[in-house]
Amino acid sequence: MGTAKDRFWVWGHDAGCHNAGWGIPRESRMTPAEGAFYLGVPNLIFVRYEGKPEPPFDRYARAFSPLRRVVWSIVGAGGATDESERDAVLRTAEAFPNITGVMMDDFFHAPSAAGEVGSLSLDVLRGVRDRLVVAGRRLDLWVVLYDHQLNLPVRDHLSLCDTVTFWTWEARNLANLEANFARAEALAPSADKVLGCYLWDYGTRQPMPIEAMRGQCELGLRWLREGRVQGMIFLASCICDLDIPAVEWTKRWIGEIGDAPI
Description:
Elements: E1 8-12, H1 32-39, E2 43-46, H2 58-63, E3 69-75, H3 83-95, E4 99-104, H4 122-130, E5 133-134, E6 137-138, E7 140-146, H5 155-158, E8 163-167, H6 177-187, E9 192-198, E10 200-201, E11 206-207, H7 210-226, E12 231-235, H8 245-257
Parallel strand pairs: 1-2, 1-12, 2-3, 3-4, 4-7, 7-8, 8-9, 9-12
Antiparallel strand pairs: 5-6, 10-11
């Protein structure tokens, strides 16, 4: 038996990635590892944002060495992906054993003219899965699924993923979190589920209301205890040094309940 904190992750981008375009009140300089340490969270999701950082990734991975588990993006923010990035991530994972999985961010989209809804086709995704054995261990394949994507034909892609992270893009729709999460469970019955918790209402570019923050955190903790989710992610490291109320509330909450047995 572990603790709640063992199941917590921080979503990390390179320092300053959200300084423009999201209504963030000030400029941040916090790195992903600093964000994890500040919140008191032992695990990190690290995702490329607008092409940053560029490979090779070893100097970033070395800074993450004190963290327990790291999941690294092979599909970055905005759904960006290419084979050279995947190659670089797998080379990094060979050298750093705390890298336990790969993340596909912003993976799903409205169907293309050819009917494709993923950044990678099913055939390419199967090939990616076949490559996820490095240094004698298998990396888990993670993906992002948003509440507004539940009506897309995503079931076949989800069936190839080990972990589905579920996100509510606008804070006002957290009122529907329980019903929407049940729909996500039905779409991916065999995958592990992890609840994504925004620390800022990115969908409307406004602060996350404290009551909404409290609601998603307390619900996520209950689902952890019930076994419905295997973890919770707090997004993002690159706003954690700005004295944002939802960040500070979450930091205190993790400190209060983090050692609770799960």
